[in-house]
Design a protein that fits this description.
Helix content: 25-40%
Oligomer: single chain
Distance between the termini: 29 Å
Structural class: alpha/beta
Largest sheet: 8 strands, mixed
Mean pLDDT: 98
Shape: globular
Bound molecules: 5-O-phosphono-beta-D-ribofuranosylamine
Low-confidence stretches: none
Length: about 200
């Protein structure tokens, strides 16, 4: 049985879907939900499901990423996860940290990578006049939003859509895609998941 730690920064709706899916014949179980903000709403939700939680506030480190990541690493080693899932974790991790988890760290990004790496993906897709948009689960490498793709889900862009409309439609697909990818990845299968 694989052990999975999930890193969050906010409400944790993706984290919740991952935890809820890791039951029965799933090849993995959650061992920790860790946030860089002690007030992250997802911590309360995870604790309510009986998952161990922790918070390491990045702010006292005043931009000293190495020191923040050393604290993160120490707490993760206590939980000894086999797999790390970034789920709405909004801190950019440095190459030394990422390389330490090479091939074992996943992230969900709200665009059809390699399009729209970084932020504001929904507004950028609308500005570009795209008719299709979506989300991607990828392995994390030192190249921001650039690692091998493990799954993608597509949604239509409707006329009159606002960035919020698109974000809500994409988030629904994120909640289906990430659990499907993790279930396959934890079983050792890197064949990309395509939705719908
Ligand atoms: C999601 O849209 C995810 O793709 C992005 O941040 C959002 C987090 O949502 N990285 P939640 O915290 O999982 O609800």
């Amino acid at each position: 049985m694989k052990r999975v730690a999930i890193l969050i920064s906010g409400g944790g709706s993706n984290m919740l879907r991952l935890v809820e899916d890791m039951t029965g014949d799933h090849p993995a179980r959650p061992c920790l939900v860790l946030a860089n903000d002690p007030d992250a709403g997802g911590l309360v939700k995870a604790a309510a499901l009986g998952v161990p939680t922790a918070a390491i506030d990045h702010r006292p480190y005043k931009g000293d990423r190495a020191a923040f990541e050393a604290a993160l690493q120490a707490r993760l080693e206590e939980a000894a996860p086999d797999i790390l899932c970034l789920a709405g974790f909004m801190r950019v991790l440095t190459a030394p940290f990422v390389n330490g988890w090479k091939g074992r760290m996943l992230n969900i990004h709200p665009s059809l990578l390699p399009k729209y790496r970084g932020l504001h993906t929904h507004a950028r897709a609308l500005e570009a006049g795209d008719t299709e948009h979506g989300c991607t689960v990828h392995e994390v490498t030192a190249e921001l939003d650039g690692g091998p793709i493990l799954g993608q889900a597509r949604v239509p862009v409707n006329s009159g859509d606002t960035p919020d409309d698109l974000a809500a439609r994409v988030l629904q697909m994120e909640h289906r895609l990430y659990p499907a990818v993790l279930r396959r990845f934890a079983a050792g299968d890197r064949t990309p998941v395509q939705m719908p």
